[in-house]
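#lab-general

N.A. 3:47 PM
ok so I finally got the sequence cleaned up, no stray characters, all 290 residues accounted for. can someone with queue access submit it? mine expired

B.Y. 3:52 PM
send it over

N.A. 3:53 PM
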Amino acid sequence: FLHFLSSYVLLFRDIFLENFFYTAYLQEFEKICSEYPLHQLVYTDGSKTANGVGSAVVTEGIAHQWSLDPKSSATFAEQYAMLQAMLYCYMSDTRMFLIVTDCNNVLNGISQIYPSDPMNIKCQSALNVVRDQGKSIKFVWVPSHVGIPGNEQADQAAYQATFNEQIDVEFVVASDITKYLKERYTMEWQEKWARINTHLSQIKPAVKDLFTLQHPSREENVKMHRLRIGHTKITHQHLLKGRPPRYCNHCNIALTVMHIINDCPLYAVERVRHNIMPNYVTNFNSQNAN
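B.Y. 4:20 PM
back already:
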């Protein structure tokens, strides 16, 4: 697929974006367009919001937009817009095109020699079909939101498509379905976790990975996890031996990990010596845990 690389025009590849003004972007883009005066400009963009997912293609001032399945990712939206742009090139009587996108990942994906992503494969196939017609397609990457009119119009059209109630494209790639299911399972897990009241749920309110020890030995790891769960020999041995729970000799209240580490005045000096913070939760979820 090396012939694709020769027609991939990467705008501003060697320029630090933060050092460029909007006017400079526009001037550079106009310079690129002047080098291809006979090419028709085709702009693509994709958008994912809390409302939905949309794709858009803009050419000659006319916007074409599609509402995608809400489970689709922003990357899929960009890929679908690129695919539609190539289909437009296939159907058009024009022979030369300049496809403009602000998604570098899409261009990198369809330039792979052995792509595994199904949308990249579709885009490559569509590109080959268009080129078999004897048509010319060049690609330009531009930064988003720098005032390039066609790019801004495509961005707005894709955004507006996210509000459409009717879904135009129900196809969803497997990777997006997998991500969606993981997010839903995590959400349901979080809801169940929030309803229980345990020592671990107090110091770990979110179902995500906790802070881990730096290069811990297994012994240190076991100790820290027992403290996080709140089950230690001194606080829970009575359950194994069938005895009454232990009480703090100094405070005369139930002996718990929280009481020993955070509350009992008997260990105030030890807390200062070992840099134990007043916030009990922070002690188990920060670098201080080391």
